[in-house]
Amino acid sequence: MAYVLFLLTRIGLNGPIGLIMDGLQVLLMIGVLIRAKAEQNWHLMRGPISTIILIWIGYNLLQVGNPWAESRMAWLYSVRGVAIVLLSYFVFLYNIRTIQMVRLIFKMWLGLALFAAIYAYKQEYIGFSAVEEAYLNSDPAIAGLLLIAGHWRKFSIFSDPVSFAYNMVMPSILCICIIAGKFKLWKKIVLGGAMCLYLQAMLFSGTRGANVLLPAALFLFAIMKYNKKVLVFAACAGVFLVFLINVPTNDPNLLRFQTAFRPNKDDSYTARKVNQKRIQPFIQTHPFGGGLGATGQWGHRFAPGSYLAGFPPDSGYMRVAVELGWVGLLLFCTMIFTMLKTGINNYYKIHDPELKTYCLAMTLVIFAYNIANFPQEALVQFPSNVYFSMAAALLTVVYRLDRQKRRPNEAFQRQEPIKY
Asked: Percent of the chain beyond pLDDT 90?
C-alpha cells in the first residue's frame, strides 16, 4: 500500500490515506507486542539496531516538550514520518521468519519497481494522464520545480521525481548483488534487463542526487565483496562512468546526470551551501533544535512567522540538525552507523550464499539511503521510509535464518525464544 499510496490519490480515491497508513502501522506494532508478551520473548527489543531505534523514537517523542519549539501541531504532523514509521522495523523483524518470505518480499519489491519504471516510460513517451496534467498546471511553483529547459521531470506513481528516482536506484542495487551472487543464469539475465529499465527510468526524473547513489553503492560493494572479478567489474564501471560524465551530448536527461558530478558549477548547490552556512550558529546554540516540524511545509503552516519557517532544509541531515539539534544529529548518525556496522559484520558471519547476498544488498541499500539523505530528504516519504525500516530488519533476519539453517536442532526447533 505504501508503494501505490500517491497513485491511489491520483485516480480519485480521496480520504486520509496517510492517517490510514499510520493507523495500520500502529495496529501491526500492537499485534507484535501482544504476541511478544504471550511468548514472553522480548529479544526483538534488545539487539543493537533495536536499541538505537527505540532511543531515536523516544528522543523524537520527547521533542513535544522542546522549549524552543514554535508549534506542537507541527511536531504532531512530523513525528509520524520521522519516528513512528520506524516501528515497522519491529513488525518486519518479528514476522519475517523464513527464507521463502524473504524471497517473496524481494520479488514484490522488484515487481512493483518494474511497474513504476514502465509507468515512467509511459509518461516520457506517451504523456501524462489528465489528472497528472491538471496537477502540473495547478500551481506555477510546480512548473518551477518540475519543468527544466522545456522538459517535464517524471515522477511515475510517486509524489515527486526525487522519491521516484531513489526508488529506481534501490532495486537496481538489489539486482547488482543478485547478479554477482550464486543464482541461476536466467535470473541474472532477467534482472540485468530489469536493472537497465530502472536506471533509464531514473534519468527521466531529472534528479541529480540519485545519479551518485549507484557509484557510491558500487564503491562499498567492491570493498565488501573483494575479489578479482569484482575489481575488474568495478574498473570497467568506473571507466564507463567517466565516459558518461564527459561525453558531449544534447540529451537533457544525460546533461542533468553529468551536472550531478560537478556540484560546484550548479547554482542550486551553491545556494544550499549558503543556507547551511547561515543556519550553523542556530544549530550550535540549540542542542535540541528548534522543534520537530519547525522547517519546511509544517513550519509554514503552523508557525509562519517563525525564524525557521523560512529555512529550506534541502537535506535530511540539515533538517535533523535544525529541528532536533546537534544532539539529534548525533543520535541519527549513530543509528545509521549501527545499521551499517551490523550489516557488514553479519555479511562476513553468514555462510549461506543466498542469505549472504541478501545481507550485502540490504547493507548497500541503507548506505545508499544514507548518501541520498545528504542532498535531499530521503527517509520521510512513502515508500522509502518503509523500505529503509525493512532493509534494517532484514540485516538481522537473514543472519538469524543462517544460524537456523546451520543449527536446525537447537533453539529454533525446540520452540525456545528466538533471539534477534
From this structure: 33
Query: Cα separations (Å) of 312 from 60, 89, 159, 319, 322?
Result: 21, 29, 19, 9, 10
3-state secondary structure the chain: CCCCHHHHHHCCCCCCHHHHHHHHHHHHHHHHHHHHHHHCCCHHHCCHHHHHHHHHHHHHHHHHHCCCCCCHHHHHHHHHHHCHHHHHHHHHHHHCCCHHHHHHHHHHHHHHHHHHHHHHHHHHHCCCCHHHHHHHCCCHHHHHHHEECCEECCCCCCCCHHHHHHHHHHHHHHHHHHHHCCCCHHHHHHHHHHHHHHHHHHHHCCCHHHHCHHHHHHHHHHHHCCCHHHHHHHHHHHHHHHHHHHCCCCCHHHHHHHHCCCHHHCHHHHHHHHHHHHHHHHHHHCCCCCCCCCCHHHHHHHCCCCCHHHCCCCCHHHHHHHHHHHHHHHHHHHHHHHHHHHHHHHHHHCCCHHHHHHHHHHHHHHHHHHHHCCCCCCCCCCCHHHHHHHHHHHHHHHHHHHHHHHCCCCCCCCCCCCCC
Mean pLDDT, all residues of the chain: 83
- Whole-model pTM: value is 0.87
Q: What are phi and psi of 263, to 5 degrees?
A: -65, -30
> By the 8 A CB rule, do 325 and 283 touch?
yes
